[in-house]
Amino acid sequence: MLVHLQGAWTPWLGRLTLSQIPYNSPIVLGAFVFALLMAVPIVALFTYYRRWGYLIREWITTLDHKKIGVMYIIIGLVMLLRGFIDGVMIRTQQLLADGPRSAAHLQAVHGYLPPFHFDQIYSSHGTIMIIFAVTVVLTGFQNIIVPLQIGARDMAFPYLNAVSLWLTAAGAALVMISLFVGDFSHAGWVGIIPLTELPYSPGVGVDYWDWALQLSSLGTTLGALNLITTIVMMRAPGMRWFRMPFFTWATLSTQTIGLTAFPVLGVALALLSCDRYLGTHFYTAGLGGNLMLYTDLFWIWGHPEVYFIILPAWGIMSEVIPTFSEKALFGYTVMVAATLSIAGLSWAVWLHHFFTMGAGPGVNLVFSVSTMLVGIPTGVKVFNWSLTLYRGRLRFETPMLWAIGALFLLLVGGLTGMMLAIPAINYTVHNSVFVVAHFHTMFLVSVFGIFAGLMYWFPKVFGFRLDEHSGRRFFTFFSLGTVFVFAAMYILGLMGMTRRLDYLYDPHWQPLLIIQEFGIFLYCVSVFYFCKMIYVSIRDRAKEAHGQDVWQTSRTLEWMTQTPVPFYNFAVIPVVHGRDAWAMRRDSGLTATSPDQYEDIHLPNNTIVPALLGGLAFGFGFGMVWRIWWLAGFSLLGIIGLVILRSFADDKGFTLKAAMVRRMERNHEDTGIMTDHISPPVAELMLFQ
Amino acid sequence: MNPHPADPLDHPDVRNASAVGFVAGYAASVGLMAIALMVTLQHEMSYAGFVIAIAILAGLALLAQALLMFQLNLSGAQRWKTISLLLVVPLFVLSIGLTGWMFHTLYPRTMLDFMQVQGNGM
Ligand code: HEM
Ligand SMILES: [Cu+2]
Fold first, then answer.
1. Is B94–A602 a contact, with Cβ atoms under 8 angstroms apart?
2. Per DSSP, what are the bridge partners of residue A368?
3. Which helix H or strand E contains A603, and what residues bound it?
4. Is A430's C-beta closer than 6 angstroms to any atom of ligand 1?
5. Is B50 a member of any domain?
6. Full domain range(s) for residue B48
7. Pick from B88, B101, B110: which is nearest to A363 by CB?
8. Which residues of A touch B1 (CB under 8 A)?
9. Which residue range(s) make up the domain with A406?
10. Given this model, what pLDDT does residue A101 score?
């Protein structure tokens, strides 16, 4: 053992003992029962309808970018729910624990959560929401939509795409299991240094956070590589750069950020791991360590990451707003330039997260100015969206409602960001909940964008619309909740409430805390309507089914495919003659897409290897967290071995014969995402035939 | 449309790679980093000399990877790789340069013993 550990360690189980399972905590027990209540019916349904084979053949082993995207989105939404529950718990604790006379419940002195538990909850809330909910759902959208928008059959590297998904899933699984086995980090989503060092956090919580981030960031980096290559290499004939749909441009900028920034996170975390596992002193307070270096590295990644999260949402808004304004996006070229410059600038502003650390005035000045510069392209975008709306024939269907809501939030978030960018102001509100309100408003732009995208593209992928009625309720309650929670939070920040408090000392904050809790209640109502929306839509799916172009005014290539999109995307790769290719075709009456001649389609076989790699990555992470060296070692060897083995597999994919494509297209056979047995065979199963 | 090559290994990008170059690049960068580790552990150079030595070793490791492992050159076939590499330069300048500047002004204000090493850095 290279570092001194507190507590027991055995070769077989590492630091794991039965006492690490917090079965005596009523809250964890409640969470466990809730998880069981969610899981048991799903397992039962799959078993009853004998769908396990289908699940493995068609989903777990798939290399289809749409199915991978859907799985990303499902993981992301599950994590969003988990993060939301954390949020409810945080708000409730702060409401209950306000003032010296506040009541005590369970094992707490104030409120109902002891500090150590509360800290874990806000740390997992932030980590989950940013890394495992919003990022993951947005990656899912980019996965599904970009190949369709540029007229490709799949991503450039379908196999790598699945590997990215399963690495992300492994990271998410680590976060989830930390709820029931051991603890999660208590050092915030940013990993406050030197709190994350071994002497201050001797448990496994920080290690869970560390490895979960490390695994998922690996997945994100590989995904970035894949999407960039796809956009550069796989565009349909005639799809020149400035004919690309705007969402594709947004993806290109986003993933360029992802590819360049995520390795920095990897390095920052790897050095922290060296400190925690090998006893080095990169970030320690003494012995030549430099704890400011961690903060610096973290935000070199962290600020680009926030743009990694917002740019795709802006891309979604730029597709939804023109569709429901029934005209083209205003200032396309300027929009592209603005997006690219934001991606570039996002690399030059990170220090605004630690103006108060004590660097010289010149440094703070430069970063203040560069941060404000971001406001220019952002403002340009806001004007362009407004001018797209101006004199449009506006239709307020649910996707549009979410997009407009996002526009308002962007104003609030952007302007408070500008305030924070001024060091003099920043010194007074840094680490107050004003900052928390700022970035929640910003992230909510992404969340609104996500729901806009969900309503907008759901019918394309699944072939039926989401229920408009409960969708509107969902939107209304969610927006009202947002107003109540975050308007109050801005005020509390200006009143001096600092962030991450498990006990609030000032009883004057009570009224605003009650308002926030009311907002949380509205959010809970909105979750009910979300579930209702999904339920009603699935129940009435036959009624809501529709053809290629559900909104009638959409503009980009994805609407040219059959609905639901067949696994080969386009029967024949389209030739593009201008920007907004689908709108052009519709306007000139060229919407009939069945060609005279079909061609053979080549697709990769499905394979179980990426899912196995994900499982091994989880084993590796779990082994490292608990210092079960044999588990970590064998998992790592397994990963390396599998990758080498797969590189020798002579898997040439399979060819869908032209006649077959013709038959399926002519007979309107259902080739959609839910169908069984038409999509590519599983390579490993063919070995047994 | 370019038809799918029957064998992925026939793809020009894959053909470009060479096993010898890959191993050489790998060995060279591991070796250079090991030297850097040793230099760090020995604590024998002056502060400035140490920083320069580490920087040179890192530069050499980068070169080894670019030239040996990825076989980069300026031919048209490598256009995208050249562009990517060029795009790294501003990022490098921004992240390392601004970080250096930040610490240069931060140390004298927060860590007293650094005053002797690099002056009061304004
Ligand atoms: C116009 C653009 C923006 C400006 C000028 C801006 C400015 C700032 C500043 C100065 C801070 C530091 C506050 C402090 O800690 O004292 C900050 C924090 C933050 N901002 Fe922004 N921001 C902008 C856009 C965004 C976007 C688009 C997002 C995310 C989608 C975002 C997310 C965050 C987060 C997560 C933090 C703080 C995280 C933490 O400390 O835990 N910001 N912003
Ligand atoms: Cu920032």
1. no
2. none
3. strand A601-603
4. yes
5. yes
6. 18-70
7. B101
8. 237, 573
9. 393-559
10. 85
* Domain assignment present for A47: no
C-alpha B58/C-alpha A467 separation (Å) is 57
* Cα-based distances in Å from A294 to A358, A433, B62, B96: 15, 23, 23, 14
CATH number at residue A412: 1.20.210.10
Contact between A262 and A236 (Cβ < 8 Å): no
And the tokens for A133?
Answer: 């909910």
Query: A354 CA to middle of ligand 2, Å?
Result: 10
What total of structural domains would you count in chain B?
Answer: 1
B37 domain-assigned = yes
Characterize the bridge pairing of strands A654-656 and A601-603. antiparallel
Digit-coded pLDDT (tens) for B4-34: 556 667 777 777 778 888 899 999 999 999 9
Nearest to A434 by CA among A411, A417, A410, A409: A417
Q: What is the residue type of A163?
A: V
Residue A292 contacts B where some CB pair is shorter than 8 Å = yes
- Tell which of A267, A274, A293, A300 to mutate to test the B interface (max B CBs under 10 Å): A300
| Rounded CA separation A474/A637 (Å) | 47
Question: Does the residue A491 lie in any domain?
Answer: yes
Question: Which pLDDT belongs to residue A680?
Answer: 83
Asked whether residue A502 is assigned to any structural domain, the reply reads yes
> Could you tell me the CA-to-CA distances from A265 to A260, A281, A385 in Å, in that order?
10, 18, 33
**Token pair in block for residue A548:** 């290629």
Q: Is residue A625 part of a domain?
A: no
Q: What is the pLDDT of residues B62-89, one digit of tens each?
A: 889 888 888 887 877 778 788 888 888 8
ipTM rounded to 2 decimals: 0.86
Q: How far is the CA of A394 from the centre of ligand 2 (A)?
A: 34
Single-letter code of the amino acid located at A166: W
Residue of A420, A410, A431, A178 lying closest to A295 (CA atoms): A431
Q: Which of A376, A442, A499, A500 has most ligand 1 atoms within 8 Å of CB, for mutation?
A: A442
| Triad A623, A628, A633: Cα angle to 5° | 70
DSSP output for A644-687: HHHHH-----EEE-HHHHHHHHHTT---STT-SSSSPPBHHHHT
User: How many Cβ atoms from other residues are within 10 Å of residue A297's Cβ?
Assistant: 23
In a domain, B2, yes or no: no
* Domains in chain A, number: 1
Instruction: Provide the strand spans (E) within chain B.
Output: none
- A424's CB contacts (< 8 A; 6+ apart) are none
A378 lines ligand 1 (CB under 6 A): yes
Say how many Å lie between the CA of residue A437 and the centre of ligand 1.
Answer: 10
Domain contains B32: yes
pTM for the model stands at 0.94
Mean pLDDT by 10 residues, chain A (689 residues): 81 88 82 89 90 90 95 96 95 93 85 92 96 96 96 93 97 94 94 93 95 96 96 94 96 95 95 94 85 95 95 97 94 95 92 93 95 94 95 95 97 95 95 96 97 96 93 97 97 95 93 97 97 95 85 91 89 89 87 80 92 97 96 97 89 86 83 80 80
Q: Do the beta carbons of residue A576 and residue A151 sit within 8 Å? A: yes
